User: Fold this.
Amino acid sequence: MRFEWGLSGLEALAPVSDVVIIVDVLSFTTAVDVVVGAGGMVFPYRGSSHDLPSFALANDAQFVSSGRQVGGGYSLSPASLLTAPPGIRLVLPSLNGSTLSLFTGDVPTLAGCLRNAAAVARHALAIGSRISVIAAGERWPRESLRPGLEDLLGAGAIIAHLTGHRSPEADLALGGFEAVQTRLPPTLARCSSGKELIGRGFRDDVEVAAMLNVSDAVPQLVDGAYVDATFRR
Assistant:
C-alpha cells in the first residue's frame, strides 16, 4: 500500500492502484461518512458556484455552499449533517476532498476518515491489494498544498487496518497515528486546521471528526456519487 498527498500524489498513484482512498478529515470525507452512514448520497462538485444549482437539479439533489455558517443549515460542516434525513441526496463542494474525488478516473474510489477507518480498510482489501491512500491536505493562500495533520492521522488510521507491504510513506502515516491514537480529540483540537475551525465557532465539527471507528459506512464513488458500498454487496 502507498500513501501520498494531494492532486499530484493522486495523479501519480491512481494509474497503478486497484483502489484509491481519499482522506479529508476536516471536513469533506467526514461529512460524506455522516451522510452516507444515514443512507444518503453525496455528489462531489468542483465547478463554479454559478453552475451549482443546475448541477444539483440535474441530479435531483440539494446543494450546499463550500463554506460554513454558524447556526445555519446543511453545509460542509459534519455536525450540521447529523440531523440530515435518511436518504438525502446532497451536492457537497470542496476545494480538497471533493476535487480529488473527481480525478480518480475509473479506479474504485472510497472516502475515508477517522470515523470509518476500519470499515473502509476492510472494503479496500476486498477490492484489491494495490491500495493508495491520498491525504487531501489544505491550501496555503497562494494555492500550494498545506499538509494537514488531521489527514495524516486519518490516513494512518486506515493503514493500521490494511495488510500487506507498506511504502515508507505509509509507514510514516501509520506511526503518526499510533503515536496519538489514544488522544485523538485533543490532538485534532490543537492542530492548525482544528484551531482554525474552533476559532470560527465550529468545535463540534472537530469533535465529530475525531471519533474513531464509530461508523461502518463505506462511501464508494459510483456514477458520480458516494453511496454506501456495504449496501451494494
